[in-house]
Amino acid sequence: MASSSGTSSGSSMIQNSGSEEELQALMDQRKRKRMISNRESARRSRMRKQKHLDELAAQVAQLRSENQQMLTSLNLTTQRFMIIDAENSVLSAQMGELSHRLESLNEIIDFVNATNGVFAANSFVDPIPSAYYLNHPIMASADILQY
Length: 147
Known about the structure:
Blueprint: H1 2-114, H2 116-121, H3 130-134
């Protein structure tokens, strides 16, 4: 019986050894599948990363283009502002000058009105009847600016 138990133990070692080889082959196969899966996952990750970088590069190009358009628009607007500001300064100066002229002319009219009797007494000839300009204030006109 001892020999039979030795024989059965020897054959079970052979069976265990066969099972271990199959188990090792199965583990190797799983390891290879996992390695292939990991490589594929890494490849997909690199592709996603590249796609994201491409999208960001396109967005940078678009934003640079928009920025350039805004700068061009800002420059045009600034130039227009400077032109209008210069025109406004000229018009303000002209308005001040015309207001001063109008004030001087109205003072002359007031003086003429106040001294109307004196001129008549001194026998000055008035080619324009005094009723014409005494009752009409002098108004500034843009036509005066056409020198």
